[in-house]
Amino acid sequence: MNPQPALAIKLGKLELAFPTLMGSGCYGSGEEFAPFADLSKIGAIVLKSVTRLPRLGNPTPRLVHTPAGMLNAIGLQNPGIEWYLERELHKYAGRPCKIVGSVAGFEIDDYAYVCERLAARDEIEAIELNVSCPNVAREGETFGCDPDLTARVVEAARATTNKTLIVKLSPNVTDIVAIARQAENSGADALAVINTVRGMAIDVETWRPRLGNITGGLSGPAIRPIAVLAVYEIAQAVSIPIVGQGGIETLADALEFFLAGATAISIGTANFTDPRIPERLVAELQAYLTRRNIASIEEIVGRAHVEIATAHQYEGDEG
Amino acid sequence: MNPQPALAIKLGKLELAFPTLMGSGCYGSGEEFAPFADLSKIGAIVLKSVTRLPRLGNPTPRLVHTPAGMLNAIGLQNPGIEWYLERELHKYAGRPCKIVGSVAGFEIDDYAYVCERLAARDEIEAIELNVSCPNVAREGETFGCDPDLTARVVEAARATTNKTLIVKLSPNVTDIVAIARQAENSGADALAVINTVRGMAIDVETWRPRLGNITGGLSGPAIRPIAVLAVYEIAQAVSIPIVGQGGIETLADALEFFLAGATAISIGTANFTDPRIPERLVAELQAYLTRRNIASIEEIVGRAHVEIATAHQYEGDEG
Amino acid sequence: MIGMAMLDLHPRVAATTILERRELADGVVLLTLHAPELANATQPGQYLMVIPPSGEAAATALAVYEAEGKRVSILFFVTGKRTRELATLACGDRLDVLGPLGNGFDCSGDTRDVAIVAGGVGIASVWLCARELLRRGAHVRLFYGARTAELLVDAQRFADAGCELVLATDDGTRGERGFVTDTLVRSQRPELIYACGPSPMLRRVGEIASGFGVRAQLSLEETFGCGVGGCWGCVVPLSNASAQAPSFPPAERGGSDVVYARICKEGPVFWAHELRW
Amino acid sequence: MIGMAMLDLHPRVAATTILERRELADGVVLLTLHAPELANATQPGQYLMVIPPSGEAAATALAVYEAEGKRVSILFFVTGKRTRELATLACGDRLDVLGPLGNGFDCSGDTRDVAIVAGGVGIASVWLCARELLRRGAHVRLFYGARTAELLVDAQRFADAGCELVLATDDGTRGERGFVTDTLVRSQRPELIYACGPSPMLRRVGEIASGFGVRAQLSLEETFGCGVGGCWGCVVPLSNASAQAPSFPPAERGGSDVVYARICKEGPVFWAHELRW
Ligand SMILES: Cc1cc2nc3c(=O)[nH]c(=O)nc-3n(C[C@H](O)[C@H](O)[C@H](O)COP(=O)(O)OP(=O)(O)OC[C@H]3O[C@@H](n4cnc5c(N)ncnc54)[C@H](O)[C@@H]3O)c2cc1C
Ligand SMILES: Cc1cc2nc3c(=O)[nH]c(=O)nc-3n(C[C@H](O)[C@H](O)[C@H](O)COP(=O)(O)OP(=O)(O)OC[C@H]3O[C@@H](n4cnc5c(N)ncnc54)[C@H](O)[C@@H]3O)c2cc1C
Ligand SMILES: Cc1cc2nc3c(=O)[nH]c(=O)nc-3n(C[C@H](O)[C@H](O)[C@H](O)COP(=O)(O)O)c2cc1C
Ligand SMILES: Cc1cc2nc3c(=O)[nH]c(=O)nc-3n(C[C@H](O)[C@H](O)[C@H](O)COP(=O)(O)O)c2cc1C
Ligand code: FES
Ligand code: FES
C-alpha cells in the first residue's frame, strides 16, 4: 500500500492541510456552516470582505438564481474594521481550519489601513485583497480593472504585513493576465482567480431589474469555463500559486482547475447547494490520487498545458 | 379587437418583419434549417462569417457542452470571399427572410475588401462586422477589444457600402460601453451585443483541453446575465439600435433583452435545442403584446431602465 | 422564536426518507418525511433547506409544516425548477435537508385572542404555531386567503383543531372575495397577530396591526442563498435597536440605526414594528 | 448513403409517441417510437436529433436502430445529462425528433462477403445496414465488441437474422478477450467493411481495411451542435477530392486539399480511405 497522497499545499507562508478554501462572502465566518460541515476537513475559510467604515450594503433583493448560477449584489455589508476587530474577530479563534481575512476598499489608504489592522491579529493567518468586487457603486472594481491601480493597492498592502497576501482578480477585464503579472510584481504571494462576472437579470413581470443594485456578480457552474481559462492563462504567466474558483461543485470540476494550474481551489456557491460538498471533494480528491497512484496534489497542478495542435494548417489559416 | 401588435423593426435601412435574427455561425445559410423551421417567420439570417482568404478552421473537437451552455471554437472555417461569391451566395436568393452577411478579418484592409465585395451583392441586405471572434489565433479579437481599432475597422467598412452596418461587440473587455460608443461614432447603424465569452474546458480523463483550439467561446443561457447587462449599459450610451443576444431560449429571455434596450434579438445556440424556438418566440411575443395591450414591440424597448434605489444609504455607504 | 435568537436548536444535516406524497391541489405537494430528530427539535415557524437530489441547483427553503412523532412534512407549490424536482420524488426516496433553521414564532405569551393570517403557501409556516397556541388555550382565528378555492389547501385541518376560520379568495370561489387582509381589518381587534404570506400582504398586516395598536409577528420570505446566515443575501432592513438586529455599530459609532438583518438567520419571523422596509 | 449526398431524404420535425421502453442492460435503454414517416424514410446509418422534452440542453444525436412498419427505435447508453433525461421517459410520452438525418451506409453494391464491425453502442447504427445486406443476399459477419458480456446487447437479433457473429469483450466475459479489431485482423478478408464505434476503433478498422486492400465505410461520432449542418462544429478532415467534401477551393485556387467535412451533414458515414484524420 502506498501512503495517503498528500493534499497539503502552501500559499506563500500559509500552510494548508487541504487545498480547499471557502470563498469570501459565501461562508460567513464558518460558524454558520459548522453544524453541517466538518471544518477540520477544509483548508481555510476566507472571511467576508471588511472595509474601513461600516457599510449597510445594497438594497434588496440581493440574489437572483440564473441558469447554472446566481447573481449576487450584497454590496460589502459589514460593520467596519473597528467594530469587526472589537466584536467579531475573537469568535474565530480556535476554528479547526485556517482563517484568511478579506479586505475591500475605495481608496488605496483604506486598503492599507484595514490590511494592517486585520493582519496584526493572531486569528488571521493570511489576507486576501478583494480588488474586484463588482457590486459597489464607486470605483470598487476599478482597482482590479487597471494594472497600475492594482499595483499600487498591492504595494500599499504588502508594506503593512508579512503574512501571505492573496490578490483576488476580476474577470471583467480585457487582459486579466496583465493584471496578474502586476499583482505578482507588486508583492502578491498568491492570486485568487476569479471573482464574479458582472451581469444582471430583469423581472419580466414588473419590467424592473431583479436586483436592488441593478447589476450583480455571476457565480456558479455557468462561469466555470471562464474561470478555468483565466487560471490556465495566468498560470503560464506568473510563478506564484493560484487559488482557482468559479463554479466548482464536483471532483471533475476541481480537477479541471488543478490541471489548468491552480494550486488550491475555492468553493463558494456550491455550499448553497450542499454544505457537505467541500468535505466530499477532499475525500474524492484523496481517492482519485490514490487510484491514479499520484503522491501529491501538487503533481497534477498545471498538467493540462499543451501547444495548440497545428494539423492541417495552411496559408489561408495563418490569419 | 385591437389590430395585431407590430413586430416589425428597423436596423438602419434594414427593415425586418420580425425582430429576430439567427446568430452568425449558428444557422448556416438557413438552408440547413429549412426542413425544420418556417424561415418566413424570422426576421433575418446572419450568415456565417466570411474572410478574404479561405480558412480551414480549427482542429477538432470544436464543441464542448458546459453547464447551461456550450463552448465553440470553429475558427471561422469558410472558403474565402471569392469562392463564396462564386459558388455559394447565389443559393441564398429567394429566401423568405432577409439575409445579412457577416465579415471577419485580420487586417483593416481585409474587412474593407470583403465588406465591399459582399455588400455589392443583391442577396445581401446588410452587413455584420464580426470584430469579436474569440477563436482565431492572431489578432482577430483585438479589433473588438480596442476602441481605436474598432473605430478604424468600422470607418473602413462604412466607406465601402451604404447598406446597414451592424457591428458585433465582444464581451471580453473592461469597458464594452466605450467600444460601443466608438462603433457608433464611426458609422455603425446598429450593434450586435454580445458575441461569445472566452472560456475553456479540460478533459479530466486525458488531462488535455477539450477543444482542439484549447480556448473557445461560451454561448447559451449561462451567459445571458452577462449579455443582458451589456445591452442595458450600452442602450444608455448610444442611440443606434441593438441586436441583443446570448442565451435566448424563451419568451421571458427575449423580453429581458427588449426591456434592457434591444430593438431586436438574435438566437443562436437555442436552435441546437429545438429549431422551432425562433418561430415559437415570435408567436409568443405577438401573444404577449396582445395580452398586455401593447401596440408594438418598440414600445417595450429599454423599459427596464431605472435609478438605483437609495433607501437606507448613509455615510459609510458613500464609498 | 423571536427575541430568543441564541437558543440552540441543534440544526444538522438530516437524511430523511419520504413516507408519503400527496397532491393537495394541482401543483401543491405535501411530502411527509421520516425524520425523528427534526420532528423533536422543530419550533413553530422554523424551516428546512432542502438539498436538491440532482445536485443541480441551490437548496430550497421550505417551512416545516407538521412535526409529529418521528415525522415532519413539507408543503410546497410547484413554482420553478427546484420545486419541480421535489415534486418528482416518490415514497421511499431519500431527501437530505438542513434544519431546523431560523427563529420562528414566539408562542410563549399567554395571549388569549390571537389572529393568524396566512396567504397562499404561507399556510405551511403557521400550522405548528396554531397548534401550539391552541394547546396553550388561546382562541385562534385563522384568516386564510388564496387565489382560488382549490388553493385554500388543508383549511379543514385548522378548523378541526379548533381554529375559527375566515377565508378569502381573489376570485370569490370560497369565502370572501378579495384580499385576506380586508377581512382582517374589518374583524375584531385581536391581542396579537401572526402572519406568513407574500410581502405585500405582510406589509398590510403590519399596517393593520399598528392601526389596531397590537403587535404582529411576520414570517418573511426572500430569495435565499446559503439559508444558514453565511452570505447576507436574504436581508430585510431592521431597526438596529431590535433584539434581533445583527451586530452592527449604531449611528453614534459611525454605523446606522437601520441595519439589514438576515431573514434566514435572525428571522424568518420579525416583529412588524421593528422592520424598516 | 455515401457518395449520394444530394438525395432528398425529406427530413422533418416528427412528433413521436413512445410505444415501448426496455432496459437491455444496466444503463442501456431501447425506446420504440410511433413514427410512421420516419420509419418509411430512414436509410441504414441515418440518425435523429432528439429534442430534450425539458428544453434544457442541446438535442442529442441518436442513430435509428430499427425501422419497421410505423415504428422506429433508438438505443442508447446513459452517459450524461441528456441520455439521463431520455431514460426517464415512459410509454405514452411524447418525443419530438428531427430526422432522418445524414448520409448513411451505402448497401447498394452486390458485395457477397461483408464484415460489419460494431463497438459498444455503435451496434445501434448497424442493424438496418445488416438487415439490408442480408436482404440483398450477402454473407454478413458481425464483429461486435463491448466492455463486458452484459453490454453485448441484442447480439442474438443479428444471429437470428442470419449474421455470423464474432464477439469480443474487454474483460473476456463473452467471446474473445480483447478488442474486436483484433478478431477482425485475424479473420478472413471480407470484400467490404462497415463499422461504427469509438474513434480509436474506427481508425484501427481503417488500417485493417487498407491492410486487407478493401474499402471501409466508417460511421463517425463527434460532439454535435446543430446536427443539421449549420454550425460546422462536428467536423472531420477529409480529402477535398472526396465526392462528400463540402464546397471548398482546392489548393490551386488558394484553398487546401484537405477540408473539414461535417459529420452530421456530409456524414456520418465516410470512406475510410478519404479521411485525413
Ligand atoms: C423561510 C422560507 C420558507 C419557505 N417555505 C415555503 C414552503 O413551505 N412552501 C413553499 O412552497 N415555498 C416556501 N418558500 C418559498 C420557496 O423557497 C421558493 O418559492 C422557492 O424559490 C421555490 O423554488 P423554485 O426553484 O421551485 O421556484 P422559484 O425560485 O420560484 O423559481 C423561479 C424561477 O427561477 C428559477 N430558479 C430558481 N432557482 C434556481 C436555481 N437554483 N437554479 C436555476 N434556476 C433557478 C426557476 O427555474 C424559475 O424559473 C419559503 C421560503 C422561505 C424563505
Ligand atoms: C451520428 C451519431 C449517432 C449517435 N448514435 C447514438 C446511439 O444510437 N446511441 C447512443 O447511445 N449514443 C449515440 N451517439 C452518441 C450520443 O449522441 C452521445 O453520447 C451524447 O453525447 C449523449 O449525451 P449525454 O448528454 O447523455 O452524455 P454526454 O454528452 O456523454 O455527456 C457528457 C457530459 O457532458 C454533459 N453534457 C452533455 N451535453 C450537455 C448539454 N447539452 N448541456 C449540459 N451538459 C451537457 C453531461 O452532463 C455529461 O456530464 C451518437 C452520436 C452521433 C454523432
Ligand atoms: C453571495 C456571494 C457573496 C460574495 N461576497 C464576496 C465578498 O465579499 N468578497 C469577495 O472577495 N468575493 C465574494 N464573492 C465571490 C466568491 O468568493 C467567489 O469568488 C465567486 O462566487 C466564484 O466562486 P463560486 O462560483 O464557487 O461561488 C461572493 C460570492 C457570492 C455568491
Ligand atoms: C457554434 C457557433 C458558431 C459561431 N460562429 C460565429 C461566427 O462565425 N461569427 C459570429 O459573429 N458569431 C458566431 N457565433 C456567435 C453567435 O452568433 C452568438 O452571438 C453567440 O453564440 C451568443 O448567442 P447564443 O447564446 O444565442 O448562441 C457562433 C456561436 C456558436 C455557438
Ligand atoms: S441566505 Fe445566506 S445569509 Fe441568508
Ligand atoms: S453539428 Fe452543426 S454542422 Fe454538424
Explain the layout of strands and helices.
The complex is a heterotetramer, with two copies of chain A (319 residues) and two copies of chain C (277 residues).
Chain A: E1 9-11, E2 14-16, E3 20-22, E4 44-46, E5 63-66, E6 69-72, H1 81-88, E7 98-103, H2 108-119, E8 126-130, H3 142-145, H4 147-158, E9 164-168, H5 176-185, E10 190-193, E11 197-200, E12 202-203, E13 208-209, E14 215-219, H6 224-237, E15 242-245, H7 251-260, E16 264-267, H8 277-292
Parallel strand pairs in A: 3-4, 3-16, 4-7, 7-8, 8-9, 9-10, 10-15, 15-16
Antiparallel strand pairs in A: 1-2, 5-6, 6-14, 11-14, 12-13
Helix pairs in contact in A: 2-4, 4-5, 5-6, 6-7
Chain C: E1 12-25, E2 28-34, H1 36-41, E3 47-50, E4 60-63, E5 66-68, E6 71-77, H2 81-87, E7 94-101, E8 113-119, H3 123-135, E9 139-146, H4 155-161, E10 164-169, E11 176-177, H5 180-186, E12 192-196, H6 199-212, E13 215-219, E14 235-239, E15 258-262, E16 269-271
Bound molecules: flavin-adenine dinucleotide (FAD) (2 copies), flavin mononucleotide (2 copies) and FE2/S2 (inorganic) cluster (FES) (2 copies).
One flavin mononucleotide sits between chains B (23-26, 48-49, 72, 74, 76, 102, 130, 133, 168, 195-196, 219-220, 245-248, 267-270) and D (225, 231, 233).
